[in-house]
Amino acid sequence: MVNGTHELENWGQHVTNNPVIIAGGGIGGLTTALTLHQIGVPCIVFEAVRDMRPLGVGINLQPNAVRELYDLGIGERDLDRVGMPAKEWALVGLNGNDIYSEPRGLLAGYHWPQYAVHRGRFHMLLHEKAVQRIGPEAVRLGSRVTGYRKNADGSVSAFIECADGASAEATGALLIGADGIHSAVRAEMHPAQPPIHWGGAIMWRGTTSAKPIRSGASFVGLGTHRQRMVFYPISHPDPKTGLAMINWIAEVTVDNSEGWTEQGWFRQVGIDDFIHHFDGWVWDWLDVPALIRQADCAFENPMIDRDPVPNWRDGPVALLGDAAHAMYPTGSNGASQAIVDARVLGRAMVEHGVTQAALAAYDGKLCGPISRLVLRNRGAGPFGLLNLVDERCGGTFDNIDDVIPPAERAEFMAGYKAAAGFAIDELNRAPPTIPAGARADTAPAA
Fold first, then answer.
1. Start-end of H helices in 104-234
2. Contacts of residue 115, Cβ cutoff 8 Å, sequence gap at least 6
3. Do residues 335 and 27 touch, judged by C-beta distance below 8 A?
């Protein structure tokens, strides 16, 4: 072992002999750390990047996730720094006519708002809170978890690869694999898992400074299931110019029989590489080519996920976030589910202590239904209404009620919300996931 090993061991002994080890300092990992701190469970996060930077573009935080953030003491003032409350969700056909629209967040009757945020800025907010609350040693950067060993005494040791090339081990009571879609923890837990799944959709993402449309805080999906645009503001408008940061995703579906042939899963590309797919997408209320061309840069990535696995737990090790359930972004709930995962895990520790029984309870509650949600999102999620419109009229219509009756549209959307855990009445009635002041038993199991 190298010197780094001793440093990690000394840190663990300074706080506790058995901290919870978290692999990955993304949204799921940091929310887990904040949750464990709230319930009195010592933890340490190992994150591969050397420096935290605000990477990424827009994501949505559904009301079920915002509720959990509020209960963590991350409220409206914090979230307004990194995004804005959403007011509307809408699908629009190829001729610019509405297929479906509904209010969102507080306007829909939820007790909590839905937020559209800049992913990188939100991530930095979580990191800031973790360092403030837990301490500067809470998140070890430049430290990638590459695997684990279950020990005879019930503890678990994580293998760490450091940015300087050194290797180390950290031992704790439990290991939470929140290390993303390329999770090394998941790969060790399920070595026979299939490779990453790509269904043929390619996305180009960017942000443009422009005036918000419709409600001023609307999420709009436009086009068909084969070719579409999604856009929504992720900042409050500038008081002087009226311009906001508009997040947009341009998407086409192509033949995937040869698999993904580009180098890497995420890369910056020129706008001329893809804008031709959206020639002529101009209406009196929106000019898609102009919106794209005004962006500073664009990034390309395939829409990917992973096949569900039968369980997220191996003794003292559990998966969380994308490591457990990487899913297509069609439901706008990948980050939200990672936040909910962390809170359900915290509740399980309140009820069962920092034990393998807590991981079993967490796995039993979420693995089955969220695995089904992964497959539902693969089938287009709430954007499945675009598929129905295309099948029935080719994407253009005068009156959507003649294509899909209002009751059928409402039933379709209600079914997705229930599956994703943010049906309005059910969420509003539910007690807090973690009761105020609740603490977990950190004593070792007999």
1. 119-134, 184-189
2. 60, 61, 66, 79, 83, 84, 85, 86, 105
3. yes
* Whole-angstrom distance, CA of residue 325 vs CA of residue 362: 14
What residue type is 215 in one-letter code? S
Handedness of CA 393, 398, 403, 407 (dihedral sign): positive
pLDDT tens for each residue of 252-263: 998 887 777 776
Task: Look up residue 310 and give its two tokens.
Answer: 């039968």
Separation between Cα atoms, residue 205 and residue 269, nearest integer Å: 10
Q: What is the mean pLDDT of residues 371-393?
A: 83
Kindly tell me the burial class for residue 293, based on how many C-beta atoms sit within 10 Å of its own C-beta (0-12, 13-18, 19 or more).
Answer: middle
The residues with which 268 forms a beta bridge, in sequence order, are 299
Query: Model-level pTM?
Result: 0.92
For residues 23 and 144, give the distance between their C-alpha atoms in angstroms, rounded to a whole number: 7
In the predicted structure, residue 4 carries a pLDDT above the cut 80? no
- Cα distance between residue 97 and residue 284, in whole Å: 12
Q: Rounded to a whole number, what is the largest CA-CA distance in the chain?
A: 71
pLDDT in tens, 164-189: 999 999 999 999 999 999 999 999 99
DSSP SS3 for 374: helix
Closest CA relative to residue 374, chosen from 333, 345, 342, 344: 333
Give the number of domains in the chain: 2
The mean pLDDT value of the chain amounts to 91
Of 78, 76, 72, 77, the closest CA to residue 106 belongs to 76
CATH code for position 334: 3.50.50.60
Q: Domain span at residue 231?
A: 60-119+196-305
Regarding whether 354 and 257 lie in a shared domain, the answer is no
Q: How many CB atoms lie within 10 A of CB 252?
A: 17
Vertex 128: Cα angle to 317 and 184 (nearest 5): 25
